[in-house]
Amino acid sequence: MKLITAIIKPFKLDDVREALADAGIQGMTVSETRGFGRQKGHTELYRGAEYVVDFLPKIKLEIAVAAEDAERVIETITEVARSGRIGDGKIFVTELERVVRIRTGEVNEAAI
């Protein structure tokens, strides 16, 4: 089992969610977050004063999948979230040791 964590631009969320649903992915966790990488932030004007926004709004997706589905999920997110400009995001893949569905007690793939 794999945990896929993707950091994407907020306006890409609906497109990514729909594409993953079409690919048969049933569930995910979505969090609003802030961060920066090479994009580094930008300058904004507020009430006549200029200030730097260091941390940009991003969306964090966490998706637990069976190992054989991981590559398909990664490809789907990459294709849909890519704009070709700096700040498109990153995908991290980690190994999941154990998953338990609290309601039923199902474990591992059955719990995903």
**What's the arrangement of strands in the largest beta sheet?**
2-5-1-6
Distance between the termini: 9 Å
Unreliable stretches (pLDDT < 50, length at least 5) are none
Shape: elongated
What's a concise summary of this model?
The chain is an alpha+beta fold and 112 residues long.
Which descriptors would you attach to this protein?
112 residues, alpha+beta, 2 helices
What would you note in describing this structure?
By secondary structure, this protein is α+β, with helices and mostly antiparallel strands. It is built from two helices and six strands; from the N terminus they run βαββββαβ. It has helices at 13-22, 70-81; strands spanning 2-8, 29-35, 42-46, 49-53, 56-65, 89-95. Helix 1 packs antiparallel against helix 2. The longest helix is centred in the last third of the chain and has 12 residues, at 70-81. The chain is elongated, with a radius of gyration of 17 Å.
Write the topology of this structure.
Layout: E1 2-8, H1 13-22, E2 29-35, E3 42-46, E4 49-53, E5 56-65, H2 70-81, E6 89-95
Antiparallel strand pairs: 1-5, 1-6, 2-5, 3-4
Helix pairs in contact: 1-2
